[in-house]
Design a protein that fits this description.
mainly alpha, 16 helices
Amino acid sequence: MLKTIESNRLTKIDFFRSLAIVIMIFANSSPYIFQEPHPIWFRLLCSIAAPLFIFLSGYSFHLSFRKDKNKKHKYTQAFYLLLSAIFIDTVVWQILPFQTFDVLYLIAFGILINTLIFDFNVIIKLSIASIFILGSFCLKFLVAYRFNIYDQPINIISLKQINFSSIFDAKRWLIDGWFPLFPWTGVAILGQIFYQKIDIINKYMTILKWPTLFALSFFLYLVLQTISPIPERDGYLEIFYPPSPYFICFFLTLIFLLFSFFNNSKLNGHRFFIFLGILGRKSMFIYIYHAFIIAYILASFAKPMRPLLFLIVNFIFILSAFAMAYLLEKIEKNKLVEFVPKSIKKILGIR
C-alpha cells in the first residue's frame, strides 16, 4: 500500500515538473523569437514555471529523503546540481558561473538548507521560510534592487579582463539575481513542509478547495492590477523581478489548488499523466537540452515571430523534448550509458 501511495505521488510530481518544463520552454524562448508586445496573461503564465520547480524541489526533497540514507547523500546531490548549473553557464551561455544565480543554483542551495533544517519541527521550518519570504520585502526597502544586471562573458584569451568579483556578488545571491535566496529559499522550504504534512492537508483539501479558489481569484485580481507597469527584465517576461506579496500569495494558492485537483488516486495512476510525466522524470537532462536549443538555435535565429508561428515553433520544440526524454529512457533501460562516468551522468541528468 505504501509503495502505491509513493508511486502515485511520484506520478503527480513528474507531471507537475513536465508542466513546468513546457511553460519554461515558452518563457525562455520568448526573449529571442516572440514579437512584442507580450500579452499580460502570457507573462503571468510564464511566471509560474520557475516557482513551481522551486516548490517541487522542496516537496521531492522530503519525498526522496530516507532515514537509511544519511545527509551526505543530499549534500552530494546539491553539489552535482551546482556542477550542472556551472556547466550550463560556462558551456551553453559562455558566461562566468554563479553571477546570474539562475534557478538551478537556487534549487541546489535549497537542498542544502532543507537538509540542514530537516530535523527541525514544522513551526521552526515555517519561521525560517517566513524569514526568507518576508525578509525579501524588507530588503527591497533597505537595499537598492538592481533591475538590470550584466552577465560577464568568459574570456579565455585574456583572463586579465575578467572581473571575477562578479562571481562573489553577494547582493545577487541574496536579493536581485535571477533567483536569489530571498524569497525563493522560503518557497523551497514550504515545499518540504507541504509534503511533511501532506496527510493532514489531504484531509482538508476537499473542504478548502472552494475557499482556495476564491483566494486564488482575489490574488489574481491584485496581481493583474499591478502587472502592467512591471517591465521585462533583459527580455524575459516573468513578473517577479522582484516578486511582490501578491504574486507569492497567488502562486502558493495556485499550488494548493493544483494539488487538490490531483488528490485523486485515479488521476495519479492514469496512463495519460504517467506519459506526460516523462519530461519530469528527465527534468535535469531536458533542462540542459532546452538551454542548448535556445542558445545555439533560437538565439542565433533571433527573429521576432507572430503568435501563431511562435506557437508552432515551440510546439515542435516541446515535441523534440518529449522525443529526447523518451530516447533517453530507452537508452538507460538498455544500459547503453554504462560506459559514461557516474559523475558526468549526474551532471547531465542521466541515470
